[in-house]
Design brief:
By secondary structure, the chain is mainly α. The chain is about 75% helix and about 0% strand. It is elongated, with a radius of gyration of 25 Å.
């Protein structure tokens, strides 16, 4: 049996016998368990005064969740990248006298969006309905991991834009065209960040 399982069983048995959480934490810390391990073990049991102790809900993992959420976030990344390309190509056309291949970029980007956008929206709305019907699905570990990856991607994109803007300012290249293209990235990446940031806390215990 894994050490973590033994720890959880010990905490459960100690709570059943009426030991306080402070007593249990003191004993476990003295035995060499780290504070984070002790807190996690105690946190696995609700503080409701009931015997036996009531377990808290735990995260779940399933192959179905991996497929659905990986596909959804993959479509999000591909679609958002091509959306930025299309909008920036339109900016280039507005500021430049010659297209320099922007028309072809727009055609390809729109083609990608026509395929990915409806599929992403369908998957997202479908999962929203499932989550509304069964809030336990919010505890999917795959969902949480990929949501945080989306947040990381958006945050890093915003950081890169900020760095590029500061560099352009210092080198004197902060033109209207540059600002317009940077704003496009900020709006797209910022929208993704806000959407998933507001979503990540749902289903967490209050």
């Amino acid at each position: 049996m894994a050490n973590r399982d033994e720890l959880n069983l010990f905490v459960r048995d100690a709570l059943v016998t009426g030991k306080s959480r402070d007593e249990i934490a003191s004993v476990l810390t003295g035995a060499g368990w780290s504070p984070s391990e002790v807190n996690d073990a105690l946190g696995a049991w609700d503080e409701t005064p009931f015997s036996p102790p009531v377990p808290r809900p735990v995260s779940t993992v399933s192959a179905r969740d991996f497929f659905v959420y990986a596909l959804t976030f993959g479509l999000l990344l591909i679609g958002s990248f091509n959306l930025v390309l299309v909008l920036q190509a339109l900016v280039d056309l507005a500021f430049a006298d010659e297209s320099y291949g922007e028309t072809e970029i727009i055609r390809w980007g729109v083609s990608v969006l026509i395929v990915t956008a409806p599929l992403y929206l369908w998957l997202t709305l479908r999962e929203r309905r499932k989550l509304a019907q069964d809030p336990a699905l919010y505890r999917s570990a795959i969902r949480k991991w990929l949501t945080y990856l989306a947040l990381l991607f958006a945050a890093m994109t915003l950081l890169i834009v900020l760095i590029a803007t500061v560099y352009a300012l210092l080198t004197g290249d902060l033109t209207g065209q540059f600002i317009a293209k940077a704003l496009i990235v900020v709006v797209v990446a910022g929208g993704i960040f806000l959407f998933y940031f507001n979503d990540i806390g749902r289903g967490e215990p209050q």
